[in-house]
Design a protein that fits this description.
The complex is a heterodimer of chains A (436) and B (583). Chain A has 436 residues and is of the alpha+beta class. Chain A contains 15 helices and 15 strands. In chain A, strands 6, 7, 8, 9, 10, 11, 12, 13, 14 and 15 form a ten-stranded mixed sheet that branches. In chain A, a hairpin with a 5-residue loop joins strand 13 and strand 14. The relative contact order of chain B is 0.02. Classes of the chains: A alpha+beta (436), B mainly alpha (583).
Chain lengths: 436, 583
């Protein structure tokens, strides 16, 4: 099934499932065991005691073959799980609040969903998750890894050698660690020259380059970006945060142009790079100006906040999630399920995306009102989809290298981390295998 | 078009300036400044040229031209004018303009010849060398600038001459060792430079600081250099080392030594105990150098700083001096007496402390509140020594909440549980600090579980704990628990015993594990069982048995979902599984 068909299927199934049974087809489409036994409602509004672990409990039910429904826009995007001792045990151990609901109560919920901007989406297959991350990275370096680890959602790590050796095959969902796909080590040389971890980063990348036979690290990263692009076009789900969002598009647009400073590849960036970039190859952005000056810690004018670029730096505000029509746009609705509408912003090497740099057709999921930038965007590519979320760590707004790791057990209700986990569960809403 | 008209007007004005009076030229200079401000450097230059045609050594015009011609890349046009100016004016300012022009045009021989003439005309002046070095520094010719300054020093024949210039040049080029050496020389030559030296050297990068200190503390270093080092070390977070360096410069007790102590104490104003301690030490030494009430005040300040830093020994020495000082103000004497009694209590000399307290009461030297606080401290110390009757006696008819709390502990240790509960309730949450309140609340919770009017065994076991015999207390608590009737808090007492054993380290961990196991298995549905299971899981984690720990934690969470320790258990579970970082 192609992605658009999937979206239509999700929307259609969900819409009919809530009772818009004008053609009498609801009973036919309904899974045989749905609504026939008592269920557990996992509320995702303020009644929930651990929003993040709720995703893990739900994931494990799907993984075990249980039928799960995501009740979009109902009590903060609640989940309906089968009532079973194992599920109750898992919820109790995880500190996740569940409510036992009988058939009558489920019917009442469905009635409420039918009459409001809400919907029910079946979650059928636990996505197989891969995280693109250098081998020496601690789990606490990356928000997505932290969220997965905390929620108890299994994942595998892979990096350049695995990606280029067709390692993405078999994975439903790929997250990009805050990688610099321009191959310039995030321009950390400007601030962190001499830091052991930077030397280690350079050593790892250079070893991978030599192992894979590339002339330079930027050349290798371009090939990796291209492979990821093809993975999505073939039906994969991509989620990227922080620098990975901006730099993967720069690497894709610069397939035949040198945009890396000489410290990265031995040659200066092409002074006319802007005119030569091919934006037809990118996911989200277009017509950006590349920051060729190696002395300025910025990649381009895609990022609105320019956290390390001195006077260009913009202060943090708050971003607001868009309210989509659950029955018509189930995919963006899934991605913005939350118990908060307005969320404090947080810095990353790429914090936000200038609205003017977005390609036509990109769906904005969250923005800062009145600001020229947006925070959270989504789009389609071929048979797959991608989602970009600016910033590094939703619970560490000023994140600095060397800061203590975020302990998510102290932020179990984090609305920012919920957005990450929405993305993890989103591929579970497939009707069947998407990738070719 | 307007611009062209403007230009023409300025050229005309410049021509008329040749014959203009001085007032007209001053007005032209003002116009030149305004044009510079507006960014019209070329037009300003035209005006300044005009002024110089009428008055060749007009300094504002020469300086103006230097300012505007440099960014325009036309500095060579200034050369004939500067040289012409020198023929009519040999003041330092005009010479400096010519020197900078030669240097900008890299006319090294001309610059050197000009300086030679200047020095010959004004022997002993620092200005020629300073101006030459600055001109070279502005052209990034740092090594040449250094050579010029050293040549100047040799020519002047004064070892410390141009030290500040050499120091600043060292800083600019990253040669902090030279900077330190030269600043020390400058401060030696002029003590008023000491503050500048410290302030400038304080900016030394982390990796250069050791070199700076070495340079200032070599065996041949002067006291001034060492004092600079002492202040720098203090500012760089090494107060003890700083004090050691300063202390080595205090004999003989000169006015400079007193000044150094005063500066050091003033600089030691941060709140860390280490810094407070050296502040106290510096003030104590300063007090010895100051006469009468000033010395007494410094000593009182020293004692306060040392007490704040927790250095009771040093504080006591200072206070003894203060107590015997007839010039000491009453407030300082009171502080001295109070601190001395506190020190006696800390040392366990309770009879002497009681006598000191009695003297304080008799003389009414300290405030009533201070004396009451000290009395309660003394009672607590008697209790810790097991001298319950003496504690009771000192409390007497004291009806304060602090006294009620102390009385509660005396009753508890005597085994009068019911009366102890009443006393603790009377004390409420307001007696003592937060730790004391928490301890009382925890004990109340235990006593309420035991719910007996008296238990001499339990009281004695808890007193053993209060006296610091933790191992003995574990065994005593176990015996006391065995004597409690069924359903009277036995698991709670065993839990306390287990926690004490667990804190005693690996040697007693087996005992702790046995005690917690017993509570988990026989503790019933009370609060003790889940708390013991959590403690048991922690021991298993410490013993590197995460799977067993996880089993216990899961059992706890699922069996006692309403227990207050479930959130803690959940965090331990997440840590054991690696889901959150270890904090």
């Amino acid at each position: 099934m192609r992605r658009r068909e999937f979206v239509r299927a999700v929307g259609r199934a969900g819409g009919l499932a809530v009772g818009a049974d004008v053609f009498g087809l609801a009973a036919y489409l309904r899974p045989p065991d749905r609504l026939t036994a008592a269920s557990l409602l996992v509320p995702m509004d303020d009644a929930q005691s651990d929003h993040l672990k709720a995703y893990g409990v739900t994931y494990r039910v799907i993984q075990a073959g249980g039928k799960v429904e995501w009740l979009l826009n109902y009590r903060g995007g609640s989940f309906l799980l089968p009532d079973a001792p194992t599920v109750r045990r898992d919820a109790a151990l995880s500190g996740v609040a569940v409510e036992s609901v009988d058939d009558g109560q489920v019917s009442a919920v469905r009635g409420e969903i039918a009459g409001t901007n809400a919907d029910s989406v079946p979650l059928e297959k636990a996505p197989k998750v891969a995280v693109y991350v250098p081998p020496n990275t601690q789990p606490w370096d990356d928000a997505v890894t932290m969220a997965l680890q905390y929620a108890g959602i299994p994942f595998e790590k892979l990096w350049d050698p695995q990606v280029l050796a067709d390692g993405l095959h078999g994975f439903d969902w790929l997250h990009l660690h805050h990688e610099d796909f321009t191959g310039q080590y995030s321009k950390f040389f400007l601030i962190y020259t001499g830091a052991p971890w930077l030397a280690e980063m350079v050593r790892f990348n250079d070893a991978a380059r030599r192992q894979l036979g590339f002339s330079s690290v930027p050349a290798m990263k371009k090939a990796v970006a291209r492979t990821i692009h093809d993975y999505v076009a073939g039906g994969g789900f991509l989620f990227a945060m922080c620098t990975a969002t901006e730099t993967i598009d720069l690497a894709l647009a610069a397939h035949d142009v040198d945009i890396a400073a000489s410290f990265a590849d031995g040659t200066p960036a092409d002074p006319n790079a802007d005119q030569k970039l091919d934006w037809s190859q990118t996911f989200a952005f277009t017509s950006a100006h590349v920051e060729a000056d190696p002395q300025i810690a910025s990649f381009s004018d895609i990022d609105g906040h320019q956290v390390n670029a001195g006077p260009r730096r913009q202060p943090l505000g708050a971003f607001k999630l868009f309210n989509f029509s659950a029955k018509i746009d189930p995919v963006p609705t899934m991605l913005v399920q939350n118990h908060r509408e307005v969320i404090p912003d947080f810095y990353g090497l790429t914090t936000s995306f200038i609205r003017e740099r977005l390609k036509p057709g990109v769906t904005v999921l969250a923005d800062e009102e009145g600001a020229p930038w947006v925070k959270y965007v989504h789009g389609d590519l071929g048979k797959g989809t991608w989602t970009f979320f600016g910033g590094h760590d939703p619970e560490d707004p000023q994140h600095q290298i060397g800061d203590p790791p975020t302990d998510l057990s102290l932020h179990p209700h984090s609305p920012g981390y919920r957005l990450i986990l929405n993305n993890v569960l989103f591929p579970a809403a497939k009707k069947r295998e998407l990738k070719t | 078009m307007r611009h062209r008209t403007n230009n023409r007007r300025i050229v005309l004005l410049a021509i008329t300036l040749v014959a203009a009076p001085a007032a007209g030229r001053a007005q032209a200079i003002s116009q030149g400044f305004e044009l510079e401000r507006q960014g019209h450097a070329d037009q300003a230059a035209t005006l300044y040229f005009g002024v110089l045609r009428g008055e060749p050594a007009n300094l504002p015009a020469l300086l103006g031209l230097e300012r505007v011609l440099t960014p325009l890349g036309r500095i060579a046009e200034l050369l004939p004018l500067a040289e012409h100016a020198l023929t009519v004016d040999t003041t330092s300012a005009v010479r400096s303009v010519a020197l900078r022009t030669y240097t900008a045009l890299d006319m090294r021989d001309s610059a050197a010849a000009l300086v030679r003439r200047w020095v010959a005309a004004r022997p002993g002046e620092l200005t020629p060398w300073r101006e030459w070095a600055i001109a070279l520094e502005d052209r990034q010719r740092f090594e040449d600038a250094r050579n010029v300054l050293l040549l100047g020093r040799r020519t002047l024949g004064t070892p410390g001459a141009l030290a500040i210039e050499l120091a600043e040049l060292g800083q600019r080029t990253g040669d902090w060792q030279t900077a330190a050496f030269e600043w020390a020389g400058a401060a030696d030559a002029s003590p008023s430079q000491l503050a500048n030296a410290v302030s400038q050297l304080d900016d030394a990068p982390l990796d250069q600081r050791d070199r700076v200190i070495r340079s200032l503390t070599i065996s041949a270093a002067t006291p001034t250099a060492r004092r600079i080092a002492a202040e720098l070390l203090l500012g760089w977070g090494q107060p003890d080392r700083g004090w050691d360096v300063l202390a080595g410069t205090l004999d003989p007790a000169t006015p400079e030594a007193a000044m150094a102590l005063r500066r050091f104490a003033a600089r030691a104003s941060r709140s860390s105990p280490g810094v407070r301690r050296v502040r106290g030490l510096a003030l104590a030494r300063l007090a010895d150098l100051l006469p009468g009430p000033m010395g007494a005040q410094a000593r009182a300040d020293a004692a306060r700083a040392l007490l704040d830093a927790g250095d009771r020994e040093a504080a006591r020495a200072v206070l003894l001096k203060l107590a015997g000082d007839p010039a000491a103000p009453r407030e300082a004497l009171a502080l001295a007496q109070l601190a001395m009694v506190e020190g006696l209590i800390s040392d366990g000399q309770l009879d002497s402390a009681a006598a000191g307290l009695a003297r304080l009461d008799r003389d009414a030297l300290a405030s009533g509140d201070d004396r009451e606080r000290l009395r309660h401290t003394l009672v607590a110390a008697w209790i810790r020594q097991g001298q319950l009757d003496k504690g009771d006696q000192i409390l007497g008819a004291d009806s304060s909440v602090e006294a009620a709390a102390l009385h509660g502990w005396i009753l508890l240790y005597r085994g009068n549980l019911k009366e102890a509960i009443a006393a603790f309730r009377t004390a409420g949450p307001y007696a003592g600090d937060r730790d004391a309140t928490t301890a009382r609340t925890a004990m109340l919770a235990l006593l309420e579980q035991v719910d007996l009017p008296e238990s001499p065994e339990l009281g004695a076991a808890l007193l053993q704990l209060a006296r610091g015999d933790s191992s003995g207390a574990v065994a005593a608590l176990r015996r006391a628990a065995d004597k409690l009737p069924s359903g009277r808090g036995r698991p709670d007492v065993l839990l306390v015993a287990g926690r004490i054993a667990a804190r005693l380290g690996a040697g007693q961990e087996g005992t702790a594990q046995d005690l917690f196991n017993e509570v988990v298995q026989k503790g019933g549905s009370g609060a003790a069982a889940p708390a013991a299971e959590l403690e048991l899981a922690r021991i298993l984690l410490r013993r590197n048995r995460p799977a067993d720990a996880v089993a216990h934690l899961e059992h706890l969470i699922l069996t006692y979902p309403e227990s207050a320790v479930v959130p803690e258990a959940r965090r331990e579970l997440e840590r054991a599984k690696g889901a959150i970082p270890r904090s």
